[in-house]
Model the fold of this input.
Amino acid sequence: MSKIVLTGATGYIGHKLLLHLLQECSEDILVPVRASSREELERRYQKLMVPVAPHFRSRVIPLNTDLEGLNQALDSYREDITTIIHNAAKTAFNIDEITANSVNRDASLRFLEFASELPHLINFTYVSTLYASGMNAGPIHEDFISLPSFANHYERSKWEVEEALRTRFFHIPWRIARVATVISDDVSGTVVQHNAIHNTLKLFYYGLISLLPGKAETPIHLVDGEFTAASLTAVVNKGLPHKIYHVCYDQTASISLGRFIDVAFEEFNKDETFKARRLLKPLFTDEKSFDTLVMNMKGFGGSVLNQGLASISPFGRQLFIAKEVHNEALQGLLVNYQTPPMEEIVRKTCQYLAQTRFAKSSGGHS
Done:
């Protein structure tokens, strides 16, 4: 029986994607799960299965392995594997160079070597990032990008795998899905997993930052988790080989950095605790001044401040870059595609974060 391999299923997007695949595909799904013992594997598997309908659970086959041992763990299934969705990665913008190289790039290249030898593979979907486009400004099309410069090692490592698909592994029936930054779980504004966006908002809420790199007019591109999972499923099921798809909304759904901050403060000021602090919005500054602030604060701030600054700093250069993102290829896969009111999603997200004091929802996975 043909099988799907889904890496990163224990992560946020991977778990949502697993639920969609079980609904829309009939194959069994091989899920790598890193565990130090059989007992831990069972615990992590049971956690993964909590939202899965009972009649689907037998189709999820856990494999106790990390990316390093993935090829060996899958070797006995090589005759059955028809689809691979490579979603596993270290996605933090502040990832160090060694980890970016070993986990995001080198492990992916080894996995592609394995995939290239599979006799019945018809689909290798690589989950990348919109920021594999690097520091490029202007139109960002669903196509390869030649030698961009990068704001951080995360972006670079994802681009290098894309480049390997274009050159070394063009014979594989791949497709690439570049995902934008997730702001909420769905259009309700619920937040399940925090990323650089939420860490930045947390600094605003607690009045821990007075300067922010970037320009007020820079558009930022955000998506919700449900749209992301549904779009990735469409890329897997309907996408064409050797095509790139931007898993994001079209440019009309972007929100400027300045307006994003305005909306955040409008919503935070509805919270009496925040309002009593009489906090001012941070001022925009150049990258060098912000880096100086980060250096001066190291060792002096608390965990919230240090975590927030660590998230913003490696991504700050992107906040000066005006990208015009295109998603026509993705729109062609989606039925009844609609551009959402992004300002409203941002507003609801900020309401949720203030109400919960930035506590994470119980729906997260790791």
Remarks:
- The chain has two domains: 3-180+222-251, 183-220+254-322+336-356.
- Residues 3-180+222-251 form a domain with the Rossmann fold fold (CATH 3.40.50.720).
- Residues 196 and 311 are 5 Å apart (CA to CA).
- The radius of gyration is 21 Å.
